[in-house]
Predict the structure.
Amino acid sequence: MSATLQQTSRLYNELYNEFYSSNPDLNRCGQYLATLKVMLSKISFLLPEGEINNAEALLIGRNILEIGALWSVATKDIPSFERYIAQLHTYYTDYGSLLPQSQQMYPLIGLNLLRLLSQNRIAEFHTALENIEPEQLLDNDYVKHPVHLEQYLMEGSYNKVWNSRAEIPAPQYAFFIDILMETIRNEIASCSEKAYTCLPLSDAATLLFFDNRQDVITFAMERGWQVETDGKIYFATKDDNMVEIPSTGIIKHALYYARELEQIV
């Protein structure tokens, strides 16, 4: 084992012990990961390619990147999560046969599917599904969960999306579901502004999937809605953007053109 690989292995163990401790220091984990990625680059295992005979180094590299992906979710760093998943894709596909299957693989694949849903990247979601073994779509809870969510979204069954929070296969899934629900809330809010003049606070809470009155009021203020003492939300209207349609003039022109056509015929 080379000296660099020995150092990488030793620092990985420190990262592992810290991240999976009862109260991990996420800042320290981030420092470990930054150093370890440099070390993996030096030994060409950050983005491995070609024929590889060192299964030990390959295993350490995969484990580091998996912790990095989970750390990214814990720190709510979506771009970082996306980079780690892209790097892990090589390990899972090109070198999967050289390593024992990772217990974190399908949880991370499911998290990535959920990320794509929360970002409304539906085409990429289906492309990612095509790379998953068909039996896993039916039998693996980590994969089934985002697949079912996508079906609920296509049906417009937003209440099922909300209720799915109680059925998440891993705690990390709640992060992306919360983002997805925020997107759904804004879509419902936009439709409500067009459909209603006002709504009682209790009805708005139910419609927008809020559990308490204060959350509704905060959301309403962010949208520029008026919350009045009568317990109702009044949706803001922008009169200056309203365009008056000159109906009388349009009718006169239509009649004029009709008479001219009659004379031509």
